[in-house]
Amino acid sequence: MKILVAVKRVVDPNVKVRLRADGSGLDLAAAKMTMNPFDEIAVEEAVRLREAGIASEVVVVSVGPEKATETLRTALAMGADRGLLVRTEATTEPLAVAKALSAVAGEEQPALILLGKQAVDDDCNQTGQMLAAKLGWPQATFASQLTVNGDRATVIREVDGGSQTLALALPAIVTADLRLNEPRYPSLPNIMKAKKKPLEERQPSDYGLVIEERLEVVRLEEPPTRAAGIKVKSVAELVERLKTEAGVLA
């Protein structure tokens, strides 16, 4: 069974991003970049399935700029077998990524596609769902547990008030949530081995695609600075402040 895993290069979530002086976007020139954390969990799950003998090959794919090869190499160091970059310098929006992944899936014919539930840079949470719709495959989002048995997958996902168990016929789409696993750190030997693993680069036109930017960012601004909080000594003082200062009580 082949597993396809989609990964995205994003700003390291531990880094404070800065706006360009003219407010036209984020200044990413010197920002530290990394693999989207939810995609990292998806890669880990795919590698575990291969190590368990359930999957035979793990292919990681990214749709983005040339530097996304660094992200793919990280996935290869984690244990993926080969990488594929659909290279574009355009801003990749969920629908364009879903179209590209759909085309790749048509060539690769995976039994399972894993993605992070969302990217931490745009928080769209759309690509997996759009991809499932384009392929006409069953989907399970926000997976916290995944079991594959033959041509079926069982996914446990957290929902309001508890958990939900879904049974999917393969091929299927599964998006990873935080509790699915704990991703491994690539070891130095595996980082060195990853440099020799196959990494193919394709253009969107190879799949008959044109990556269009459908959204226009008009301007970005920092949120207003919040006033510092205060501690009150009693409930009576709290009520008094809510009346006289906050004006939320009559």
Automatic annotation (TrEMBL):
InterPro entries named among the record's database cross-references: ET-Flavoprotein_bsu_CS (IPR000049), ETF_a/b_N (IPR014730), ETF_b (IPR012255), ETF_beta_N (IPR033948), Rossmann-like_a/b/a_fold (IPR014729)
Pfam family, one: ETF
Functional summary from the UniProt entry: May play a role in a redox process involved in nitrogen fixation.
Matches recorded under SUPFAM superfamilies: Adenine nucleotide alpha hydrolases-like
Domain Electron transfer flavoprotein alpha/beta-subunit N-terminal intervals: 23-211
Quaternary data: FixA and FixB form a heterodimer.
Origin: domain of life: Bacteria
Keyword list, A-Z: Electron transport, Nitrogen fixation, Plasmid, Transport
Magnesium in keyword set: no
CDD domains xrefs: ETF_beta (cd01714)
Organism, scientific name: Ensifer adhaerens (Sinorhizobium morelense)
Transport as UniProt keyword: yes
Organism ancestry: Bacteria, Pseudomonadati, Pseudomonadota, Alphaproteobacteria, Hyphomicrobiales
Name of the featured protein: Electron transfer flavoprotein subunit beta
Assigned protein family: Belongs to the ETF beta-subunit/FixA family.
Gene3D superfamilies recorded: HUPs
